[in-house]
Amino acid sequence: MNAHLTAAEQAALTSGADFWHTTAVGSAGIPAITLTDGPHGVRLAVTPGDPLTGQPATCFPPAVTAASTWDPDLVRRMGEALGDEARAMGVSVLLGPAVNLKRSPLCGRNFEYFSEDPLLTAALGVAWVCGVQSRGVGASLKHFAANSQETDRMRVSSDVDERTLRELYLRAFACVVRKARPWTVMCSYNRLNGVHVAQHRWLLTEVLRGEWGFDGVVVSDWGAVVDRVASVAAGLDLTMPGPDAAGDRALVDAVRTGRLDQQVLTRSADRVRALVGRCAAHATAGYDVDAHHALAREIAARGIVLLKNDGVLPLGAGSIAVLGEYARTPRYQGGGSSAITPTRLDDALSEITAATSARVAFAPGYDSAEPDPALLAEAAELARTSDVALVFVGTPAETEGVDRASLDLPVAHLELVQQVVAANPRTVVLLCNGGVVRTAPWDAAVPGLVECWLPGQAGGGAIADVLFGRVNPSGRLAETIPRRLVDHPSHLDFPGGDGHLRYGEGVHVGYRGFDAREQEVSYAFGFGLSYTTFAYGAATATADQHGIRVRVPVTNTGDRDGREVVQAYVSRPGSRVRRAPRELKAFANVPIAAGETAEVVLEIARDDLAHWDVRLSRWVVEGGPHHVAVGASSRDLRTTAVVEVDGDDVRVPLTGQSSLAEWFADPRGARVLGSALDGPAIDPALLTLAAAMPLDRLAKMFPGGPLDPAAVARLVAAVNS
Ligand code: BGC
Questions:
Q1: Which atom of ligand 1 is nearest to the CA of 188?
Q2: With b meaning 16 or more CB within 10 Å and e meaning fewer, what string describes 237-266?
Q3: What's the CATH number for 534-645?
């Protein structure tokens, strides 16, 4: 039974008791629940006095690596394992997934985010939430919304136009809310178009609940709330962390003085109570530490992206020089709230050594960002006397709270690559990084390049699996690797200044912007090599009221079993709105045995063809021919099908503010206006001149003309009747 709560109890229930717990209300039999990070492991605090150090848990690959698998089934399995660990540790809500778009490669938290593309992000976010929640543990979809940088993150206003917001930055949130029904959504720190997200009523109530049907709890990011009363009024339910005695008192006062409707507070408290109720059946069970480590290894191996291979991989029987400190001391996750204390930690050096009977020798190559001549010479000498050299380089620590200053590798790492390649041309560079690094121009000189990302606690074994061909690489880039930072669409508007961050590239985020400007890139969105090859047959496409169905035969033409990530990009030539030249609209991750052909079917949902029409404030599918290009990356499109799609009805109401041209472009408008202007033919030059003028302005300018204000009013009534 729902016992009645006083306003004071409701206020207490809607703020945390401490860093990670909600407040129990004993009189009503409401226990406290535990929420904790997230997203690639369960970070349950060891002691209340140190809320940031976690007990050991599996450190799965961070989102950057999980996303590069392009495999929602695998991410769902990761979610299930995370759910099992959370349950075993008594955690009710795991704070993830983070579905913010990677707007700039410099964002310090890109390792926690999936992709620069909303469709891929959404598919993986849905999988993560479904996996975790299938275990009776709640997810917290974060950080809602437009939180794509760390600089000034608690105050900066993300200034985004509505179409960009809807089509790009909100799209994955909408999809995950609708399809996976997360128990909670976490509002972000930043402001959106000037208003703190934690008190953004349009976002938290009108869009999230009203349009998308969210019925769970909106929780604040930790410390995001500025004005508790304004937040609750806007639709925020749970303020974390706590306690927040002053905020609780302010809420009670606001209710007493009528500044806040009692029902609004009751609703929030009821939502928190319902969340607690969902978690009540919580049972603890152990989890299989070894099986989770093995799963972490499987995901990491599948997320590694083979960027370049001039025949040097997979490794043969010759001797190996393993160079670079990161081979021995792995970079396996980023810093900040997502940092996990792993149950164990594999390093690449040991795993490579264990995987071969060949001689494996190691030299650290660097011990800081500055080149050390002695370390470099030792590494180069080892490379010279080995059959193949593996060079591990990457970013220095990346962490929540700060954006990166540069795309470049540290100088000492660049120098190591250069000296090793000079000593032994059979060199493979292995990148260890959470955000993309610049590979041009030095990659031209290396025959092998492997993007290992931050692969989690089992990354060392995963790297060995790929190097020796125990796993045939199938990871794909979920973000573009630019040639230069200045080429990036976000470059001129990152990280903003004076409290504002203008999303100046609009809908042209990531590859959309590179493609629109026909910019050369180092490695395109969707790209990744395999140890086998795939050939595409001709794609065919049909459209109906549900969307577009594409079929394409794909053949494994090599001699190894492998996986192909088949990608479908849609273009709308002649669209009346500015669009990217192509947008990812479907993909399939398909295992194909050597010599076999798979008949791949890709389903493009009709909703995903829509753009946000700012005139009508709604989604619209444009009718006409849609080009569906299918291939192995956004820039390796092998076959295109053209299909006719029926458009939505898009009659824009004509008003006095509509221009002469708009009236004439509309068949009814042309008829009604044409007969009103009936008389001597209008000079075509005059018509051209006046085409952009709104009718009511013409009426003002030419008071004696055929369009006086009364006539305009009659026309508007007639045309819309
Ligand atoms: C982060 C969130 C995290 C929360 C709790 C915040 O600083 O932005 O992602 O879930 O802390 O640790």
A1: 8
A2: bbbbbbebeebbebbbebbeeeebeeebbe
A3: 2.60.40.10
